[in-house]
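2024-03-11 09:14:02 INFO receiving multi-entity request
2024-03-11 09:14:02 INFO entity count = two
2024-03-11 09:14:03 INFO echoing inputs for audit
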Amino acid sequence: MSAEASNPAATPTPCEDSQGDGRWMSQHVRFVSECKEREPDVVFVGDSLVQLMHQFGIWRQLFSPLHCLNFGIGGDATQHVLWRLTNGELDNISPKVVVLWVGTNNHGHTAEQIAGGIMEIVQLIHNKLPNAHTLVLGVLPRGRMPNPLRERNAEVNKLVQDALSSLSHASFFNVDPGFVLSDGSISHQDMYDYLHLTAHGYQAVCEPLHAQIKSLLEKPAEN
Amino acid sequence: MMSGDDLNPAAVPQPVEDRQGDGRWMSQIWKEMFSPLHALNFGLAGDTTCNVLWRLQNGELQNIRPKVVVLWVGTNNHDHTAEQVAGGIVAIAQLLTNRLPKAKIVVLGLLPRGEQPNPLREKNAAVNRLLRSWLPRLGQALFLDVSNEFIHSDGTISSQDMFDYLHLTPAGYNTLAKPLSDLLLHILEETPEERRGSLV
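2024-03-11 09:21:47 INFO inference complete, emitting structure
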């Protein structure tokens, strides 16, 4: 993997307030205070695919009962998540599982850089929370028809899966139930804009994910 | 006074550049709330007035004759002034009235955004003030603004209403949907039985 200094995807970077209403920082500050108030067993971190999960009924149905916190922010790339986790979003909590889902927004980065960014996050989580297991979700395909981002995301998954195979404190989990159909298309019934999941899409992702998290929670704590 | 003499960049039709490379800029289908009214949802995250104008000029009004068009756009026009944004919205309303002379155009006010007071709140409020004054000139246009419902006495917006201080939660949508639904039902009830219930 690329060394941190030369990989922008693996360099903690806050999001610039280019629009002018400070929303990214407001959300980060809110997450940091949630860490002081709550005792989650599971923390989800990542981009809009994590954040929007919280807005669907399936969150309350499957994940609230497991005492989960949701630290997703739309638009985040690996370097943004890295910054947030370095600056308070893992403090004062001791979850058993961290679910990490990020990488699709790393525009301009190579698959190697993105995978490097993801592994940097995995390492950071292990340093801060030595007893937690990190579940890294595969980056989903996107776009209605085949396109370069699908290839990039598939390559990221391959690299990350390889890198994780030698670790005991983290594992790769593929949540793609087969969104790409036989003609190469993705249906708007699964992703309404060919990137973000519908309720139907989340159902297909969250059921196996929930089962996996439950089985991790039921294992004795790792040392 | 309406913009229109000088070129207003917010009223220049422009499709979205496929910068990310997966061609995903496409129409979305409406899921739940207004389906019983036979509604279509042509909303696209990130769109500016220019993008909406382009879409309407390039197919999204073909072959349909809705009774009502609900228009909600302007918060993403980051490169434009409040006057330009309001001018862009009026340009869209004008286009809709030209193409659909019998339709009512319901223009929704731009919501406040950001957890604390900030320049974008002021800008969106200024757009709303201009719309209030300019839209009555288009006989078919109505303006509905629920902005005040979202700002608490300490000036903050709650994440219970906007999970990222921009996008609405289900609770936030409920605040908007009630008055909007009432207005739409009122408009639709005014129309003849045989053409009832067509909404974009």
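2024-03-11 09:21:48 INFO post-check: Chain A touches chain B through 30 residues (CB under 8 Å).
2024-03-11 09:21:48 INFO post-check: The longest strand of chain A covers residues 42-46.
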